[in-house]
Amino acid sequence: MPPVKSSRRSKTPPEGFKTIEPTLIKLQNKLKEAQSKSIKAEDKHNSLWPILQINHQISRYIYTLYYQKEAISKDLYEWLLSQKYGDAILIAKWKKTGYESLCCIQCIMKKDKNHGNTCICRVPKSTLMKNKQDEKVECITCGCKGCASSD
User: How far is residue 146's CA from residue 149's CA, in Å, rounded to a whole number?
Assistant: First the structure.
């Protein structure tokens, strides 16, 4: 009989969580508020934009604290991701060259797009302006106005 797997994730937060907890709670409350508003909205695409933007904001906060400011420990960073405070896949993409300002994972998923390409927000603005004059370009998935690393 195989051994029973126990949960190895620690429920108690590591040291340093108390300092960032108020900001995370504030952002999570904003996320809950946006989720409740999106249920009541009529337009499906536009109603999800605030949720994706707040998710991006929370993940960017965690990423900045760990990779740029080095204000939190590796244990705390891993605990935050294991507890689903931030989007681990999005943070992993930010570490790669060319994806430093990626808005959401859905914008680079080629299989979800009509023509098998990435989203319009991933195209550099300088390239778009050559072809189209004074036309607003925003992603229909998340409302991003441009997240190409060359912008």
Answer: 9
pTM of the model: 0.85
What's the distance, Cα to Cα, between the start and end of the chain in Å? 57
Tell me the Cα Rg of the chain.
Answer: 18
Convert the pLDDT of each residue in 74-88 to its tens digit: 999 999 999 999 999
Identify the residue whose tokens are 């499906």: 44
Percent of the chain with pLDDT over 70: 85
- Helix (H/G/I), strand (E/B), else coil: 4: coil
- 99 burial via Cβ count (<10 Å: 0-12, 13-18, 19+): middle
Nearest to residue 15, comparing CAs of 61, 66, 72, 95?
Answer: 72
What are the tens digits of pLDDT across the range 92-137? 999 999 999 999 998 888 877 767 787 888 888 888 776 655 667 7
Query: How many angstroms separate the CA atoms of 61 and 25, rounded?
Result: 12
Instruction: Please give the Cα distance from 149 to 101 (Å, whole number).
Output: 6
Q: In 2-150, which residue ranges form alpha helices assigned H by DSSP?
A: 17-40, 44-63, 74-82, 88-94, 125-131
Residue 125 contacts residue 146 (beta carbons within 8 Å): yes
